[in-house]
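ok so i was messing around last nite and threw this chain in just to see what happens. nothing serious, just curious
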Amino acid sequence: MDVDELLSFLTPETRPDVKCQATDYLLGLSGNRDGLLHLLTNPDLLVAVSSLTSDPSNAIAKECYLILINAAADAKLHKVLVNQANVIPGLLKNLQDPQFMFTDQICTILSNLTRHRPTCNTVSKAMVQQEVSVAQLVDMFCTEGFNKMASLHYLGPLLSNLSQLPDHRAVMLDPHRCVIKRLLPFLSYEASATRRGGVIATIRNCCLDHACHDWMLGDDVDMLPFLLLPLAGPEELSEEENEGLPVDLQYLPDDKAREQDPDIRKLLLETLLLLTATKPGRQTLKKNNVYPIIRELHRWEKDANVGAACENLVQVLIGDEPEEGMENLLEVEVPEEVEEKLKQADQKEQEENKKEVEETGENRKSQQIQDGWIRS
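result:
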């Protein structure tokens, strides 16, 4: 379709049925690479789509939001969306409205935009300008029924992306606010893997700030049981092993199920591994008898990447303490030649795991495209 002709259909004054046909066409276009390239070379189309998100027709407005979700999944289109379509102020404003109909779509757009670090910085600056704090987003996320027309599950990935930035992590890790503690129960939220995954990714990013490990593992936050429970199964442990575990992990029932999503299991293990970077963290995990939980998980685990993450954690749990001056593993300087060898070994392992996935016919990423739009 000719671009000028298409633009003439994407105006507020155009008949609703004609507008609907135009947005439907663009929605299909935005669901593939060639279509996204067409939008990149004709940015006025996305500007027009953005303006129609406030169309009186809910059907047209929804299709426009779905087009923006697909466009935001492509980092090449972020400058068009941010600078020319200027989508961020309106998205942040409507996000906070408990009566807004398309909040879930807004969460997904912002989640896609913030996956790309430069755009994440742009969104963060806009949040400051519009006085939207990460603590407010967590409050929305944790308030059941905040918006009765939205699940807000995709606020989880948005929080995860924002937690890449030190300023937002500082808010989450402020002992006086204890924001991060509010997220912990959602690690076992059965209704949404998106929500669980966003929360564990957020917590993992926060664990990069090793100075807060003692606080996160201490009584004020008590993070460890929340991290371990999704990894624990129904296996019968000895009385001695049970008694050494946190109370919430002792004598679990025969029908206790583990986290089903291997990506989330891997993130949980990576978070535990980060917590072992400091000597007090290692001591806390050993004192709370984490090893039997990881041992049984490793015996049960079928996913090669998760199995490797188990092995990495076990090596720390049963290994000797690092020599003096190297107690903080996040601060150890690795020689360049050693780092290069480790990268090569890691790349080889990833290639082997990828080959295994291809041979078993599993391809989790193919499930990201649903109903003609990308859930990213």
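not much to say yet. Strands lie at 369-370, 373-374.
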